[in-house]
């Protein structure tokens, strides 16, 4: 049966218009005024906004890390995403050490099989870039994967040297792959970490001291320079600080194909949170670390004005009190030292509400820019547009009915993420999803879950995607 969304205000990256939307066979087939409802299921969106479903291109579901595994899998994470108005995400395949990229891809397909409840894609994070793996890189395009991640940090574990990074960028440029980098100087971090631990500085707050902003800025500038030399499109993940934003701006001013994202936590959580009494600061440990309020001001401005192209979450949740009541181990693993705290925060459910509330509601950008950075730009950059990221004839009917006036208090007591804390605990937001549709089917209706494990589809993405 067709579905007709009537009487709403359709918000895309380009326009805000009063229109009805007719959906058939999972896609938008007609947009117009006063469309006939004969034979259709009608959703009345009077007084509401109608937006494309959110796209989170930086997530880590069921990720082995630091002696444990992130606590959301491809069902619990997807359900939480949907309740937060996100209908598509891209997760990071981690190449097994000593193994091939194909083995990693197969392992992640296995994780998603029978569990996926929203649509998803994969990046490939390369952890062991041997010559045979370098030769394997072009083959990932045939798997529908068109983005690679390389680490300039995690010395002795994932970190690649400059020669390896540059060679990988040359291969990526030739085959239409986007290179993503975790930009921190791993040598500097390793040295500072060792010194801090020798001095007995083990509390969570010292995580920030071990990862200074200039170590991020230096690595960002290096990656930007390599992009300029190689011509490879570069996407710098989880940008946190003013100095890194400056490096991206410099590269873009020179015409290099470079882009960047920030993540929600860097706009709301700061170094002072790492210093909360007792072990509470461990909740906020991630890499790169949270910074200062002045950095958040720069990030907001960059999101509004185009210096950064997207906002994601780096969703990588762990239990704060793991290892009890059947829970897998979590943040408690780092009680003896900040270097052992599993890195990551929950956030996939909260991204759209907090970015609307503080961004649109806070006067930092328009509703159209919100859609652009949360939906449309991610789709364009990662080869999903116009199937995803917009409301247009022929697009997948991933649609959110958004109530701009509904208020909600964010809390671990009511969220759907599989963890025992929320980094935005107690935040009162204005603007909340009323209904969420995945390919035309309502999967969230108010507080009710109508989706199903196994309904999410793997998205094969296009190479040579747009550089914004």
Describe the structure.
It is a single chain. With 468 residues, the protein is of the alpha/beta class. The protein has a domain at 53-368: TIM Barrel, CATH 3.20.20.140. 29% of the residues lie in helices and 23% in strands. The chain has 13 helices and 19 strands. Strands 1, 2, 3, 4, 5, 16, 17, 18 and 19 form a nine-stranded mixed sheet that branches. Strand 18 (441-445) and strand 19 form a beta hairpin. The longest helix is centred in the middle third of the chain and has 18 residues, at 213-230. It is globular, with a radius of gyration of 21 Å. The mean pLDDT is 97.
Note the main attributes of this structure.
single chain; alpha/beta; TIM Barrel; eight-stranded parallel β-sheet; 13 helices; 29% helix
Summarize the structure.
The chain is an alpha/beta fold. The protein contains 13 helices and 19 strands.
What structural category characterises the helix and strand content?
alpha/beta
Q: Uncertain spans, ≥5 residues at pLDDT below 50?
A: none
Average of pLDDT: 97
In terms of DSSP E residues, the strand content is: 15-25%
Helix content: 25-40%
The total count of helices amounts to 13
- Biggest beta-sheet profile: 9 strands, mixed
Task: Spell out the CATH superfamily of the domain at 53-368.
Answer: Metal-dependent hydrolases
Kindly provide the name of the CATH class of the domain at 53-368.
Alpha Beta
Q: Count the beta strands.
A: 19
Which architecture name of the domain at 53-368 does CATH use? Alpha-Beta Barrel
According to CATH, what is the topology of the domain at 53-368? TIM Barrel
Inertia-based shape: globular
**Radius of gyration using CA atoms only:** 21 Å
Gap between N and C termini, in Å?
38 Å
């Amino acid at each position: 049966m067709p579905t007709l969304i009537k009487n709403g205000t359709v918000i895309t990256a380009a326009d805000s218009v009063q229109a009805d939307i007719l959906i058939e066979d999972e896609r938008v087939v007609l947009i117009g005024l006063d469309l006939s409802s004969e034979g259709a299921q009608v959703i009345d969106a009077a007084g509401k906004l109608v937006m494309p479903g959110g796209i989170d291109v930086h997530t880590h579901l069921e990720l082995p890390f630091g002696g444990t595994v992130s606590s959301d899998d491809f069902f619990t994470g997807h359900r939480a995403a949907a309740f937060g108005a996100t209908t598509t995400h891209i997760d990071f395949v981690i190449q097994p050490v000593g193994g091939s990229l194909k083995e990693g891809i197969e392992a992640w397909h296995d994780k998603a099989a029978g569990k996926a409840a929203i649509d998803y894609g994969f990046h490939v994070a390369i952890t062991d870039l041997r010559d045979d793996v370098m030769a394997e890189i072009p083959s990932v395009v045939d798997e529908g994967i068109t983005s690679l991640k390389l680490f300039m940090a995690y010395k002795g574990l994932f970190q690649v040297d400059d020669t390896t990074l540059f060679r990988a960028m040359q291969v990526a440029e030739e085959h239409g792959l986007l290179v993503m980098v975790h930009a921190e100087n791993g040598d500097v971090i390793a040295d500072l970490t060792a010194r801090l631990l020798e001095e007995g500085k083990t509390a969570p707050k010292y995580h920030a001291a071990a990862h200074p902003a200039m170590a991020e800025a230096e690595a960002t500038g290096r990656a930007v320079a390599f992009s300029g030399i190689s011509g490879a499109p570069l996407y710098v993940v989880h940008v946190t600080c003013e100095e890194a934003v400056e490096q991206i701006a410099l590269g873009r001013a020179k015409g290099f194909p470079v882009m960047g994202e920030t993540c929600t936590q860097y706009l709301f959580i700061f170094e002072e949170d790492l210093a909360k009494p007792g072990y509470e600061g461990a909740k906020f440990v991630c890499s790169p670390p949270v910074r200062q309020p002045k950095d958040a001001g720069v990030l907001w401005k960059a999101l509004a004005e185009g210096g950064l192209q997207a906002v994601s979450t780096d969703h990588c949740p762990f239990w704060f009190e793991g290892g009890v009541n059947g829970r897998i181990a979590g943040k408690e693993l780092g009680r003896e030292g900040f270097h052992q705290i599993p890195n990551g925060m929950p956030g996939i459910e909260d991204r759209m509400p907090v970015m609307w509330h503080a961004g649109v509601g806070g006067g930092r950008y328009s509703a159209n820019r919100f859609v652009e950075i949360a939906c449309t730009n991610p789709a364009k950059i990662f080869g999903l547009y116009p199937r995803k990221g917009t409301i247009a004839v022929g697009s997948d009917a991933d649609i959110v009915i958004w109530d701009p006036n509904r208020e909600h208090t964010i809390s671990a007591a009511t969220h759907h993420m599989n963890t025992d804390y929320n980094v935005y605990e107690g935040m009162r937001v204005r603007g909340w999803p009323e209904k969420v549709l995945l390919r035309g089917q309502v999967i969230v209706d108010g507080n009710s879950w109508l989706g199903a494990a196994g309904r999410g589809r793997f998205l094969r993405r296009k190479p040579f995607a747009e550089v914004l």
